[in-house]
Design goal:
By secondary structure, the chain is α+β, with helices and mostly antiparallel strands. It folds into 3 domains: 3-124, Beta-Lactamase; 134-161; 164-331, Reverse transcriptase/Diguanylate cyclase domain (Alpha-Beta Plaits), CATH 3.30.70. The protein is 48% helix and 21% strand. It contains 11 helices and 12 strands. The strands form 3 sheets. The chain has a 5-stranded antiparallel sheet, with helices on both faces. A 5-stranded mixed sheet has the order 7-8-6-11-12, sandwiched between helices. A two-stranded antiparallel sheet has the order 9-10. The radius of gyration is 40 Å and the shape is elongated. It starts with a helix and ends in a 9-residue tail after the last strand.
């Protein structure tokens, strides 16, 4: 056996052991000089069918993969890529699609067969592709589940910090916002004010007209407070049955007091229809106003403790407003304020 034949047998043995199917095209004559018959046999085709398809592989390539395959060949032929590489699906005899890979490159062949040859190997990658697809599906499902969990957590967080009747922040959210705003006010020397708003004679409204009408009154006051404050800056919260708090960052005592007076007049002007009849009822609110003091001793307290003090001051103002006849504003501010 001459060395050339021995080397050929060695090559065929190595290719067979590696599961590789060698193919070769003569780019000068256009002939297929070595046909990848093993691949077609693996796909279940007979010798006669192989002769039909082997010269036109695209008849068996999945339609979605044809552009990819042609593009990979064109890029290698034009010199864009140093090696031709492509993965695609081939239709088996029973109609299933099997994944294969093609690796090859253009080579110069010397001797009597001098010319350019397109030489490469084809091998089955279906198991790997299916595992990749399974992993991708698992990852996609995990991503969807994580998105659902995140959405649920967001919803739960919203429920935990939102009043269900009015959609306003609840007491828990108010304390969080108030503490943060106290911290910001101290750091940047900004003014900070707080209003405590209480619906007058609310028990009487419920006892006379029923809880549904009482809920309408609560929602009306909530809307007035929201529509009278700055979106994305002020925070309106429902902190009790008929009690609200409004955090007013970068707002001094005088402006907070003016806003409170405006709220009183606006609520008093509203009317709630009773049972779709010709009867309408009105309601009023009393408001306590407080603002951060410039007292150095106060500013040394923790942010949460400072907001608690601000709440207490506004509560005292509300109590005095109630004592003064209701439907009015009473301030519990100090002589000097942050930012002034």
């Amino acid at each position: 056996m001459i060395d050339e034949d021995l080397n050929k047998e060695r090559l065929e043995l190595a290719l067979e052991a590696a599961g590789l199917d060698l193919w070769e095209n003569d780019l000068v004559s256009g002939d297929v000089t070595h046909k990848a018959k093993k691949t077609f046999v693996e796909l279940g085709y007979s010798e006669q069918e192989i002769s039909t398809y082997i010269d036109d592989l695209f008849l068996l390539v999945h339609p979605d993969d044809v552009p990819v395959l042609k593009s990979a060949v064109a890029e290698h032929f034009s010199g864009i890529t140093a090696q031709y590489r492509c993965e695609f699906r081939l239709r088996s005899k029973n109609g299933t699609w099997i994944w294969y890979a093609n690796y090859g490159r253009i080579m110069e062949v010397g001797g009597s067969d001098r010319g350019r040859r397109f030489i490469g190997v084809t091998f089955n990658i279906d198991d790997r592709k299916r595992r990749e697809d399974e992993i991708e599906q698992i990852n996609r499902k995990l991503a969807e589940q994580n998105a659902q969990l995140e959405s649920m957590n967001t919803s739960l967080q919203l429920l935990a910090t939102t009043d269900s009747l009015t959609g306003l922040a609840n007491r828990r959210k108010l304390m969080e916002v108030g503490t943060n705003e106290c911290k910001r006010a101290k750091r940047f020397r900004h003014s900070l004010s707080l209003l405590i708003v209480d619906i007058d004679f609310f028990k009487q409204i419920n006892d006379t007209w029923g809880h549904p009408i009482g809920d309408q009154v609560i929602c009306m006051v909530a809307d007035v407070c929201l529509n009278s404050t700055r979106k994305d800056l002020d925070v309106v919260a429902r902190i009790g049955g008929e009690e609200f708090a409004i955090v007013l960052p970068q707002t001094d005592y005088a402006n907070a007091y003016s806003l409170a007076e405006w709220l009183c007049k606006t609520v008093e002007a509203q009317r709630i229809n009773v049972g779709n009849s010709d009867e309408w009822i009105a309601s009023t609110v009393s408001i306590g106003v407080a603002a951060l003091s410039d007292d150095a001793a106060l500013l040394l307290q923790s942010d949460s403790a400072l907001f608690e003090l601000l709440m207490n001051k506004a509560d005292k103002g509300l109590y005095k407003a109630k004592q003064s006849g209701r439907n009015c504003v009473f301030g519990a501010g100090a002589a000097a304020y942050l930012g002034q």
